[in-house]
Amino acid sequence: MIEFTFWDILRNLLLAARWTVLLSLAAFVGGALVGLVVLFFRIAKNKWSRRIASGYIALFQGTPLLMQLFLMFFGLPMLGLRIEPWTAAALGLTFFASAYLAEIWRSGVAALPQGQWDAGASLGLHYLQELRLIILPQAFSITRAPTVGFLVQLIKSTALTSIIGFEELVRASNAINNATFEPFKVYGLVALIFFVMCFPLTQYARTLEQRAAAH
């Protein structure tokens, strides 16, 4: 057993938490970009585009994230593509996030009355201009709370990437625990770090919900 002081454990966990934060941000930004494309397909006038987007969303929402990460990390090399744990984790979480964000934002678009589309058409705007100038800004405003709420879920989901070898907070805590044999202290600190990352976002999402309800 290696002797670690409390501060040694905390310092190493905080260093590992940087990768958890970075992975969360990369997956959220990547998921937002891919999700926006999926959203365009999901609300398109062409029925085949809508079906493709619906299938994509159903696939990633209907299968465990862990299986998606396994397919990224173990499946792609079988096709001749070498992939590092960071890349597999980022891609897996990006696709996972894109499916949920696309559906969250689609609900915002669906909540808008038809009159918003008609107003854009009366101004002579074409479809993409209506989306960019009228529909999407309102849809994003409506869905800010669930979007922030999903970010909390995404941060917690990064813990699964430890299984494919990505050196984030949970994997670092396993290594520290194996060296110190102090699971209560180590995993208690991990839970506290996740709480510190997620609680402010949870409160912010709740505030957004209350503001939306007041209007």
UniProtKB/TrEMBL annotation:
It is found in: Cell inner membrane; Cell membrane. Belongs to the binding-protein-dependent transport system permease family. HisMQ subfamily. The keyword Membrane applies. One of its GO terms (molecular function) is transmembrane transporter activity. This is Amino acid ABC transporter permease. PANTHER family: BLR6398 PROTEIN (PTHR30614:SF34), MEMBRANE COMPONENT OF AMINO ACID ABC TRANSPORTER (PTHR30614). It is a multi-pass membrane protein. Keywords: Cell membrane, Membrane, Transmembrane, Transmembrane helix, Transport. Residues 17-205 form the ABC transmembrane type-1 domain. It comes from the Bacteria. GO terms for biological process: amino acid transport. PROSITE patterns: ABC_TM1. The chain crosses the membrane at residues 20-41, 53-74, 86-105, 186-205. InterPro entries: AA_ABC_transptr_permease_3TM, ArtM/GltK/GlnP/TcyL/YhdX-like, MetI-like, MetI-like_sf. One of its GO terms (cellular component) is ATP-binding cassette (ABC) transporter complex. Its main location: membrane.
